[in-house]
């Protein structure tokens, strides 16, 4: 009814400034302005793949919106995380252009790391990036510390905790040290029984920290827990599958879960599965391509 809408008294509308409302509108406008789309934003720079301990690395982040246009005001964060133990390195972020930001990090530890770059809490395109951090060239060739009183040490490896595992050839045993060089344990003695060695040479650690040792003069391979408890062995003297003649070096490919053994006097490389079953072998004696002389 139009009559009910007609005021019976003189009415006035008074506009009053509200600082809280004004502030809220400003914040709302700021949120709307943050239109950077994480799926469209991307990064460039060598620091996305490799870095060196102690050296600053720079990566450029390009901010774009849903339509692929340059944009501003992203909530940009970044962190470098070591894959092995989740050690974090601080990343500094600064604006270098209308739609470009520069982040810089300086890794303190070597090995594989993950570089996470996020906008508004979400990973940008390609993030996290796998970064391989190499040791500083200045540190190469300079001994950090020494471990003495060893009887002809031969093979050496490290486990996930940084412990150093050494095959002591003339001591017929395996030694385990802390990263600082303090002895944790040793296991093995001269002999042919399980857990004994005759001049062990190669040593390698698998992804479960089990220790695999080439037992040279017993012509076999042995596996132990990280505490030195015997798990399994394979090999006798011979040239057939799972047989060896003075095995020497050993290596593991964690992506394929294969163990590579330098079968020295058989002049070949023998490949085993992680349960010590035979996989394959290659090589013959000679100097041609694919041949070996006591590898």
Stretches where pLDDT is under 50 for at least 5 consecutive residues are 25-34
What's the tally of helices?
A: 2
Helicity range of the residues? Answer: under 10%
Beta strand count: 24
Secondary structure category: mainly beta
Mean pLDDT: 86
- Radius of gyration, in Å, reads 31 Å
Oligomer state equals: single chain
Helix and strand string, N-terminal first? HHEEEEEEEEEEEEEEEEEEEEEEEE
Shape designation? elongated
The main pleated sheet reads as: 6 strands, mixed
Strand content: 35-45%
Distance between the termini: 103 Å
Blueprint (SSEs and pairs):
Layout: H1 2-5, H2 19-33, E1 42-44, E2 50-52, E3 57-62, E4 76-82, E5 88-89, E6 91-95, E7 100-105, E8 111-119, E9 122-123, E10 129-134, E11 153-158, E12 164-168, E13 173-177, E14 183-187, E15 200-205, E16 211-215, E17 220-224, E18 230-234, E19 247-253, E20 258-263, E21 268-273, E22 278-282, E23 284-285, E24 291-292
Parallel strand pairs: 2-10, 23-24
Antiparallel strand pairs: 1-3, 3-7, 4-5, 4-8, 6-7, 8-9, 8-10, 11-12, 12-13, 13-14, 15-16, 16-17, 17-18, 19-20, 20-21, 21-22
Give a short summary of the structure.
This protein has 295 residues and is mainly beta. The protein is built from two helices and 24 strands. Helix content is 6%, strand content 40%.
What does this structure look like?
With 295 residues, the chain is mostly beta strands. Helix content is 6%, strand content 40%. It has two helices and 24 strands. It has helices at residues 2-5, 19-33; strands at 42-44, 50-52, 57-62, 76-82, 88-89, 91-95, 100-105, 111-119, 122-123, 129-134, 153-158, 164-168, 173-177, 183-187, 200-205, 211-215, 220-224, 230-234, 247-253, 258-263, 268-273, 278-282, 284-285, 291-292. Strands 2, 4, 5, 8, 9 and 10 form a six-stranded mixed β-sheet that branches. A four-stranded antiparallel β-sheet has the order 1-3-7-6, with no helix packed on it. Strands 11-12-13-14 form a four-stranded antiparallel β-sheet, with no helix packed on it. A hairpin with a 5-residue loop joins β15 (200-205) and β16. It is elongated. Mean pLDDT is 86; it is low at 25-34.
């Amino acid at each position: 009814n139009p009559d009910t809408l007609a005021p019976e008294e003189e009415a006035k509308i008074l506009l009053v400034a509200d600082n809280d409302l004004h502030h809220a509108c400003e914040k709302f406008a700021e949120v709307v302005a943050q239109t950077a789309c994480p799926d469209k934003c991307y990064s460039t720079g060598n620091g996305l793949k490799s870095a060196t301990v102690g050296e600053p690395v720079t990566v450029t982040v390009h901010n774009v919106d849903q339509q692929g246009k340059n944009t501003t005001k992203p909530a940009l964060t970044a962190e470098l995380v070591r894959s092995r133990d989740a050690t974090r390195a601080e990343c500094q972020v600064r604006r270098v252009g209308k739609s470009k930001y520069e982040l810089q990090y300086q890794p303190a530890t070597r090995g594989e790391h993950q570089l996470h770059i996020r906008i508004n809490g979400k990973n940008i395109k390609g993030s996290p990036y796998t970064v391989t951090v190499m040791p500083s060239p200045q540190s190469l060739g300079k001994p950090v510390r020494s471990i003495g009183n060893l009887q002809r040490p031969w093979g050496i490896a490290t486990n996930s905790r940084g412990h150093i595992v050494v095959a002591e050839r003339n001591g017929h045993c395996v030694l385990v040290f802390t990263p600082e060089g303090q002895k944790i344990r040793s296991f093995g003695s001269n002999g042919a029984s399980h857990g004994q060695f005759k001049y062990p040479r190669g040593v390698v650690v698998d992804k479960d920290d089990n220790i695999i040792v080439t037992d040279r003069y017993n012509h076999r391979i042995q596996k132990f827990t990280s505490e030195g408890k015997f798990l399994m062995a394979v090999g006798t003297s011979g040239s057939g599958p799972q047989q060896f003649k003075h095995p020497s070096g050993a290596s593991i490919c964690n992506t394929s879960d294969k163990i590579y053994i330098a079968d020295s006097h058989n002049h070949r490389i023998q490949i085993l599965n992680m349960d010590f079953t035979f996989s394959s072998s290659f090589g013959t004696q000679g100097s041609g391509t694919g041949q070996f002389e006591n590898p």
